[in-house]
Each structure stands twice: as structure tokens, then as C-alpha cells.
Design goal:
Layout (H helix, E strand, L loop, with lengths): L23 E4 L10 E4 L16 E4 L5 H6 L2 H7 L2 E5 L3 H13 L2 E4 L16 E6 L1
Parallel strand pairs: 3-4
Antiparallel strand pairs: 1-2, 4-6, 5-6
Length: 133
């Protein structure tokens, strides 16, 4: 993922968090006919520790409406690791998943500019930073 660059402190790991560990998922832009499709192994975030991966302090979730699936496969991960989470929301279902995340794991929502957000389900919101309380 870091072609042509030296990456020492971060690693991009494209995963489909809710899916079982024994399959694959394809990443690609279906709007572009000649776009490259990347097939990777599916992993649940809850399985990362058993693989010996270090716990991240930051998690970016931009899965085109699939945040509910991400969080469904990350219960233990979120309780243990407590990362700051950047979320791009694309649907009403995704906003509801974020609201549930905030309540269940004691996170607080903020705008990109750092201002507190009282209602993460507001339709005008598309990006949030969620921090452990």
C-alpha cells in the first residue's frame, strides 16, 4: 500500500471487518470500467490481536455505507484498543451505527475542525472524528 514510500510507523490493511477469516473481498471502484480491483483476505478487527498485530491508535472507517458491519466485527477490539476513529458516513444506517458505537463504547463525536457533535445522525454530517471519553 505504500508503493514508492518508506512507511515505518503505519500500515494500511484493507480488511472487511465483519466477514469471516476464511474468505476474500474485492476492493475497486465500480464506476470506473478500467479500474484495478484488489482482492484481499477478509479479517475481523476482533481477530487482529491473535495475529500478533499491534493495536492501532487511529482507525479510518470509509466503507461506503458499511460501518455497521465494521463495528459488528470489532466489539473486543474497541473495548481493548480504544482508538480514535475517523468515519465517513454515507447512509442513514451508517449514521445509526455510529450513534450506537458512541453509546456502547463511551466515545464522543467531533467535527473535523474539533467541535463537539451532539447528534451524529444529522443528515448533513458526512465526516466525524470519534474519541474515547
Amino acid at each position: 500500500m505504500c508503493r514508492g514510500r518508506r512507511c515505518r510507523r503505519c500500515r494500511a490493511v484493507p480488511v472487511r471487518p465483519k466477514a469471516p477469516d476464511n474468505g476474500t473481498v474485492e476492493f475497486g471502484n465500480v464506476d470506473l470500467g478500467d479500474a484495478e480491483v484488489l482482492e484481499v483476505r477478509q479479517l475481523a478487527l476482533d481477530s487482529c490481536e491473535e495475529r500478533g498485530w499491534p493495536a492501532p491508535s487511529f482507525l479510518k472507517v470509509d466503507v461506503e455505507g458499511g460501518a455497521a458491519g465494521v463495528f459488528a466485527g470489532a466489539h473486543e477490539f474497541l473495548k481493548r484498543c480504544r482508538p480514535v476513529i475517523y468515519i465517513e458516513m454515507h447512509s442513514t444506517e451508517e449514521r445509526a451505527a455510529v450513534r450506537d458505537l458512541l453509546g456502547r463504547y463511551d466515545y464522543r463525536a467531533f467535527s473535523i475542525d474539533g467541535g463537539p457533535i451532539d447528534d451524529p445522525t444529522a443528515a448533513h454530517l458526512t465526516q466525524l472524528v470519534c474519541r474515547p471519553a
